[in-house]
Amino acid sequence: MPVSPITFFFDFSSPYAYLASTRIKAIAARHLRDIEWVPVLLGPVFEATESRPLVEQPLKGDYARIDIPRSARFYGVPYHQPDPFPIATFQAARVLIGLQQEDDPHALPWLHACFAAYFAHNRNIAELPVLDAIGAEIGLPAGTVERFIADPAIKARLRANVERALAAGMCGAPFMVADDQPFWGVDRLPQLEHWLQTGGF
Asked: Is the pLDDT of residue 70 over 80?
């Protein structure tokens, strides 16, 4: 009987989603699951939860500035605190959606390249020249980035992704769903894997 994929909701501006994105593929492979990568925007999530970016919250922000690089060291993932942070990521998300819709093999390389550009190399992926450069680096034809960013259907798809994420209960990033069970945060990856391994607990 076919098993459902792991749905991975994320925003390119989330450092914890970046860390989780480097681990989730191996977990999925061990349990013969596919991953559905769903880019969203955290702004509407913050509105729904009456919250704001973690680094802007009293005490939690100070903690995050310690915890994020420490977590990166724990997972063995390259990390450089980006500046500015956070940033608008709708353009990077639209390009990913466009690649996904065309079943383009560059979709996953784009995802990982954008995450690494921002969180490992301090490249501002809110800027179009940076996105164009990333596209060239992974072999996208010239003009692809601009074509997807300007596409009204892709803009609508990103809004639909946000609505879908909120309907699923997304309260932060990364937000993962396996067998209709939600898991929020990179620190829930062990629980997610245990769920896949045991069939539920």
From this structure: yes
* Mean pLDDT, the chain, integer: 96
Q: Exposure of 95 by Cβ count < 10 A (0-12 exposed, 13-18 middle, 19+ buried)?
A: buried
Report pLDDT for 2. 57
Residue pair 151/111 in contact (Cβ under 8 Å)? The answer is no
Cβ neighbours, 10 Å, residue 33: 18
Residues in the chain: 201
Distance separating alpha carbons of residues 201 and 193, to the nearest angstrom: 11
Whole-angstrom distance, CA of residue 82 vs CA of residue 169? 28
Q: Which of 56-60, 123-127, 138-142, 167-171 has the lowest mean pLDDT?
A: 56-60
Domains of the chain: 6-198 (3.40.30.10)
Beta-bridge mates of residue 176? 8, 183
Task: Please name every residue paired with 36 in a beta bridge, in sequence order, or none if there are none.
Answer: 7
CA-wise closest residue to 98 among 149, 44, 137, 49 = 149
Residues 109-137, mean pLDDT to the nearest whole number: 98
